[in-house]
Design a protein that fits this description.
Layout lengths: L3 H21 L4 H18 L4 H4 L4 H24 L1 H4 L5 H4 L3 H32 L5 H15 L1 H10 L1 H9 L9 H4 L5 H4 L41 H36 L2 H29 L1
Organism: Acrocarpospora macrocephala
GO molecular function: endopeptidase activity
Keywords: Membrane, Transmembrane, Transmembrane helix
Length: about 300
């Protein structure tokens, strides 16, 4: 196979791995990604691509550059967790629901092998090497980065379920943390309800099986007794707004990760595949620790 045909085959391999890792068998992502990585490297070698073209070079430079940026990622996370206005962005329910052993598995196995290995080999190694044989350098970078962005559609949908704060932030560009100013905090948790507004910060997300809307019930949950008023099914307008918010999050994720893909390509040119791989691992793996730390700080603040 030659040129763009090889690129198309690689995209097919990646599409299959994406569905397997995000929908069908998430826990088996390391095995799926290892097989997909091997398939991509096999295609590249068949096309005569050399190891240097794939980024298997400059190991010392990559370790120094990637390691330094990984430390910068850790410092940035620590600063974000330390600020109340941004702490909720780190409260990823996927990480908070894991046991300690599962969290270590995610950080030390799922992220490096199940995510980073395949993505770096594919989007900073094989695809740029194949595309560069038929397109100019800028076009190669643009296509590789765009494909990296599209790769994150399914993860973005999963993120929307796990971290609602990011969805709200992407939807309105508003501060995702509650208003704790004296004018609002001093009035108590039910002040907004007294003013005719729903207080969502103290309402569990559950099905309401009571006839009367009382303390802790969900205004728009399904009422199993079928009465109107409290417990009504969300309106079409509310559903449309939720879908629009989700669409904004997905589009924002695709655009942002495409831009990150471009930056990672720059790191790959300076430090081989190792440089972006180390930053990538730090960004994802440190996120699990950040979620736990953010929850611990919030718990201490509330006690």
């Amino acid at each position: 196979m030659a040129g763009l045909k090889a690129v198309a085959v690689c995209c097919g391999v990646l599409a299959g791995a994406n569905v397997m890792n995000n929908v069908v068998a998430k826990r088996w992502a390391p095995a799926t990604s290892a097989l997909a990585t091997g398939a991509l490297l096999g295609i590249a070698l068949r096309e005569g691509v050399r190891g240097e073209e794939l980024g298997f070079e400059r190991w010392k430079e990559g370790a120094a550059l990637g390691g330094g940026l990984a430390v910068a990622v850790a410092v940035t996370y620590a600063a974000g967790i330390g600020l109340p206005r941004t702490r909720s962005l780190f409260r990823d329910e996927r990480a908070l629901a894991l046991s300690r052993s599962r969290l270590l598995e995610e950080a030390l196995l799922q992220v490096p092998v199940g995510t980073v290995m395949l993505e770096e080999v594919a989007f900073r190694g094989v695809l740029p090497a194949l595309l560069s044989r038929t397109t100019r350098a800028r076009t190669t970078a643009a296509i590789s980065s765009a494909l990296f962005g599209l790769w994150h559609i399914l993860p973005a949908l999963d993120m929307a379920r796990a971290n609602p704060s990011l969805t709200r932030l992407a939807a309105a560009g508003l501060d995702p943390t509650p208003d704790l100013s004296p004018s609002n905090a001093d009035r108590g948790p039910h002040a907004s309800r007294a003013e005719g507004k729903e207080d969502w910060t103290h309402v569990p997300n559950a099905v309401n099986d009571s006839r009367d809307q009382g303390e802790g019930q969900v205004p728009n949950a399904v009422n199993v007794d079928g009465e109107e008023g409290a417990g009504q099914i969300p309106s079409t307008a509310d559903e449309g707004k939720s879908r629009a918010d989700l669409a904004r999050l997905v589009i924002g994720t695709v655009v942002a990760t495409a831009m990150v893909g471009g930056l990672f390509l720059g790191l790959r040119r300076r430090g081989g595949l190792l440089a972006p791989a180390l930053v990538h691992i730090a960004t994802n793996s440190f996120g699990y620790a950040a979620a736990r730390l953010a929850r611990r700080i919030d718990a201490r603040s509330e006690s």
